[in-house]
Each structure stands twice: as structure tokens, then as C-alpha cells.
What does this fold into?
Amino acid sequence: MFTRILFILLFLSIGYAHAQNLVTNGSFTAAAANWTFFAPGITTEAYNGETSYGGTVGTNIVAEIDNEANLRQTNIAVSPGQEYAVSFRHTRRTGNGAAPNPSVFIVKVYDGTTTYVNQTITSNNASWNWQCKVFTFTPQSNNISIDFENVTATTLGSIVDDITIATMSQQLSLNGLNCQGGTVQLQAPNASGNPDAVYTNHSWTGPNGLTATGPALTLTNLQPADAGVYTCTMTLNGCMTVTATYSLTVAPNNFNRDVAICAGETYDFYGRSLNTAGTYDTLISGGGTQCDSFITLNLSIKPLPNATISPEDEVRICSGDLSTLSVNAPTNGANYQWYKNNTSPVGTNATSFTTNEGGSYHVVATLNGCEQASNRVQVTILPNPEAGIRFVADSVCTMDTITLSALVIDTANRYTWEPQRLFSRLSGNEGPVVQGIFNQLQNKVILTVYDKNGCRAQDSVSVPTVTCCAMMMPNAFTPNGDGRNDFFKPQLDIGQTIMSFEVYDRYGSVVFGNYVGVPGPGWNGNYKNGRKADAGVYMYLLQYHCSDGKTYQRKGDVTLYR
It folds into this structure.
């Protein structure tokens, strides 16, 4: 720390570099050096004194802008975002071939993409007369260019001089030690003079109503009351008014330093590592070239916020479930930032955090600039068992027995089927394979599978049934006693009951009738008296009751073959 303070004081004693006009050879004292002349006016015209054009000072070198000479300087280094001003003097050529009145040219300040200044300048003076122009701009790049371009179709033109680009706010430099009781000198920019940056009309203001003139200001017997901002306003190159400032501090003999550190940290006080609250002091000698300093340190310790979270080590949850991590006894006013896998922020300023993702979680508590990290909690996601229902029939009749099974069977898992009433009469609703009686047209079945960790999965299927009230009737039979197709009778389905069944010959005589509700073997191809009926076509009439509660009638014909 001693070395660091020494460096700061030495820096103050050396001071800042003098400000300069960024336009090299802006007063043309070096003739056309550093300037180029661009098309269409490419003639070099920056080496004559102003008396060549009607002026009065023959030693003052100027530049002429006309259709033979367009003036340019490129790659002028600037700082993006800082305010600058461009200034220059101009007049119409009035001697040795006067220019038209008015004489017009354009001044531009630009970079590769943006034009910051684009002004048309008119010189309409009847006799030789310098005029000042100042424009401000804020560049957005590191380099700019400046152009002076003729716009009047004439071989004569405008005269320019003292072209200047400089920052609007400049810095004063300090010479000497700013120790209490000492002497320092504030120096205006470029006070020694530069042909391209001549500062004049210096006017100073400072603390306690101070006013002064001249390029330098000397302060003796410095006291704390002399600290403050000193400002020098001056004219640059005869046109531009700029302001330079310096914020002066007066180094006292005694320094009090109040420092607060977080619990567990140490503070380096000139080679001593301190971690206990208290008052400490030290003397730093300047050795005759720096200010002596007696430093008193008041050290305080800031407590850390609580960051203990629960659960402490590991949480195991099923896929899709949530786990909530919470701070135990959170500290009032503390901010709690949650992290996943030690790096990714996942929750801000909350004393609890809910997640359904696996990973390592912790929270960092912050209070008054002090941080405390919690323990890490590993959240593990357990996979859910696989649930799927195997059911192959597109539709079945109501009251049929239907078998359903799980697609994947694991003996360690528990299988439960709902609704329970469908399976209570047969297999029951527990197990990977069940049987049920479905007495409705649409039956939604839900399978829930539980594994050994308590994780579960579900699947559902809609089992469609039909009433199956259509009666199947053969259209021929062969009562020849071979045991195959010897009888003609309805093919009953579950839930169907015969009400009446009659067969007629082609004369309308009843050859067979059954009214008992349950069919017997059927018609054997004989009349009631036992005579065999002839081969041919016979009519039948059937009435039956179905499981939907309705009575149906069917009639048709059957062919008897002998």
C-alpha cells in the first residue's frame, strides 16, 4: 500500500501532457506539409503569405481554397464519445485578383461512415477581413478527416488559416507536491506555445472566489480550504474558446480511514494482515520528496448472512415431480441467488427454490457486500416405470369378457387398473394381466404402474363395445345326417334371446315353429308330421330380444339341399 500511495503522489507532481491541436500544421507555418489536395482541385496552394491574397501580414502563411485547390487532412486521431470543436479563420481573397463576392466553400469533418460537420461557409467581406467559425461534434470512431472544398466555379477563392480541432474540455497540469503548507503551480495547456495550438486570453477561477490571468497559476501555503476545482478559460488559435480544469486535493498530515470487511476476510494495512475489529495507525514518511502521512484505520467486521439450506445432501424425486429447497432461518435483508451445477443462475432473491431438474444446487446469500455460500444439495431424478396397455380388438360385444395386459411387465412393479367395477367379477383390478366384463359402449380403462421407488406412470385406453344385435342366419343347409349343417337355426350372440322362430313353405304352411325363447337344435328339414320336406327355397320369420332392451324381427329365405 505504501508503494501505491507513493506512485499517486509522483503522478500528481509530474502532471498531465499539454493539450495540442489535433490538426497537424493547422497554421500552415510548414507550408503544405501534412496536407493533401484532392480532386478536382489538386494544386498545392498552402505556402504563400496572406499579402499574396490581399492581406496585411506577409509572414503569415495561409491556404487558398478554389477550383484548383481542395484541402484535406486524414487519420486525425480522436477519442470516440468525447466532445470536440473544429475552428478556423476565413476571408474572401481581395487582392492580386479578387475572388467573386461572396466566395463559398464547404467544410466537412467525417470518418468512414458518418459526417459530423458539413457546413457551407460564405465569405462576403468587401475588403480583407478574417472571420472565425467554430463547430462542435462528438465522433464515434478513432479517426476522422477534415476537408475544405470549393463550390464556386472560379479560379479564385477563399483563404483559410489556423485550422484547429481540439477537445472542448481540457486538463490543466500540476507541478509540485500538493501537501498541506506546500507550493504548487497549475499550468494551462501548451503555455510554452505551439504554432498549431496558441492559447491566449487566459482567465482563471477557483475556490474562495479566486480569479487570475496568465498561462500559469501559483498557489503557496496550501491549506484544505484551497482544495477544489480550478478552471482556466482561454482562446485557442484566435477563434475557439476552450476550458481546462483541475480538481486539486490538499494532502493533509492526518488521514482517518474507516474500513469494513466481511467476517472471515483479512485487511492488508501496510504489511499487517488484520481480521479483528479495532483501531490501528501507521506513519508514512515522504522522505522529503513526498507528503508525510499519519494514517488511522478504524476496522469493523460485517457478519455473514445465513445460507444453510435443507435438505442437506441429496433429494431423490420421480420424473415430473417437484423438489423445494429452502434456506433455514434466512437473514433479513439478504439477497439469495440460487445456482445449478455451481455456475448457472436459476433463481434470484428467493429464500426457496422449486425444481424438477436433476443437478447440484446451492444458494449464495449476499448482505452488505458480504457473501456466504450454502452446502450443495444433489437432486436426483428417478425414472418413472413404463406404462402401456395391450388391447388388440377393435370392438367387442357388450357383456363379453375382455383381457387387457401391460405392454411391459416387471414383477417388481405394482399394476392397478381402473375402474375397479369392470374387473371385480373376474380377475380383480391388480396385476399386469386382468379380465373384465364391459357392459357399456365406451369404457375408459386406466393403468397405473408403481415401481419400488414409489414412482408411477399411467396409460389409458378406450375400449369400444357394440350391442351386437345383428342376428346371423345361414342361407342354406343340408339335412342329410352327416353331422354337418343338418339343422337350420339362428346363430345367437351374447345378450340375444329368441322370442319366436317359424319356417314356411312356398304355400305359406308352417313347417317349423319354436316359441320357447331358447332355440333347440333347429329345423331338421322335416314337416311337423315327420315327412321330409322337398329340396327348395323356404321362408322364415324370426323375432328376438337383444341386450339393448329392444325386440328385433328378421325374415328371409333359406335353401334346403337334399
The longest strand covers residues 456-466. The chain has a mean pLDDT of 88. The longest helix spans residues 2-14. Helices lie at 2-14.
